[in-house]
Design brief:
By secondary structure, this protein is an alpha/beta fold. 28% of the residues are buried. The strands form 4 sheets. Strands 2-1-3-4-5 form a 5-stranded parallel β-sheet, with helices on both faces. The protein has a 5-stranded antiparallel β-sheet with strand order 10-9-8-12-11. The protein has a 3-stranded antiparallel β-sheet with strand order 13-14-15, with no helix packed on it. The chain is built from 7 helices and 15 strands. Helix 4 links the parallel strand 4 and strand 5. The protein has 2 domains: 122 residues, Rossmann fold (3-Layer(aba) Sandwich), CATH 3.40.50.2300; 107 residues, LytTr DNA-binding domain (OB fold (Dihydrolipoamide Acetyltransferase, E2P)), CATH 2.40.50.1020. Helix content is 36%, strand content 33%. Helix 1 packs across helix 5 and helix 2 runs parallel beside helix 3.
Length: 233
């Protein structure tokens, strides 16, 4: 998941970034910080974000104006305003703001927002693949795991299996922030589909046991605990 924070005060930039990194310490979440809305817009055009935390009161370009420009680019990006003044809330409705967070930011409130965004993004995320001459859309939330098979990758999902000519690293890169973890050079799994870990194996939702490399066992447990904590919040 890609997150941007735009605030002209460095202390709030640092506070939010540190809280996000604490909450998602074991998952692949990218956090970029900006003090200028124009720079954020330039970067957004090249590589969009999933959720944006925008300070309302900024000298060069205020958060409401910035949000309107962002809405012109995307109807789907999640916008969260940072402010100490509730009276700005009505203006936020114009840009379909997800939430207002008051400064200093409370960790529990930030968790609520990030959990909501993660659930929405994972639920609607789709993966385009080409299998047996057909182009298919797979719901990311339905995928159990990926298995490398020489120059191919087998994708196991609830509705069936799909063999595609691809590189495992490409899927690992594409699914950053979606709760997937590389347990072994040959396997990329969905943390949400893990039932339990037994010694050096992970048992998936469908009962399949997959090997975890020795170097990835501890990072897997950390990622899984972090993921479960977020789901239970």
């Amino acid at each position: 998941m890609r997150i941007a924070v735009c605030d002209d005060e460095e202390r709030f930039q640092v506070q939010i970034r540190d809280l996000i990194e604490k909450i998602y310490s074991s998952l692949d979440v990218i956090v970029d910080v900006y003090s200028d809305g124009k720079k954020l817009l330039e970067r957004y055009d090249a590589n969009p974000y999933d959720v944006l935390f925008l300070d309302i009161e900024m000298p060069a370009m205020d958060g409401i104006t910035l949000a309107k420009k962002l809405r012109e680019r995307s109807e789907n990006v999640f916008l969260v305003f940072l402010t100490g003044h509730v009276e700005y809330a009505l203006e936020g409705y114009e840009v379909n703001a997800l939430r207002y967070l008051t400064k200093p930011i409370r960790e529990d409130k930030l968790r609520e927002v990030l959990k909501y965004v993660m659930e929405k993004n994972t639920g609607k995320r789709q993966l385009m693949i080409k299998s047996e001459g057909e182009e298919l859309r797979l719901n990311v939330s339905d995928i159990l795991y990926f298995e490398a098979q020489n120059q191919y990758v087998m994708i196991y999902e609830k509705k069936g299996d799909h063999l595609v000519r691809a590189n495992m690293a490409d899927f690992e890169e594409e699914l950053k922030g979606d709760g997937f973890f590389r347990i072994h050079r040959g396997y990329l799994i969905s943390l949400s589909k893990v039932r339990k870990i037994v010694k050096s194996d992970v048992i998936m939702e469908n009962g399949i046991s997959l090997p975890v490399s020795r170097s990835n066992l501890k990072p897997l447990k950390e990622a899984l605990y972090s993921f479960v904590e977020e789901e239970a919040f």
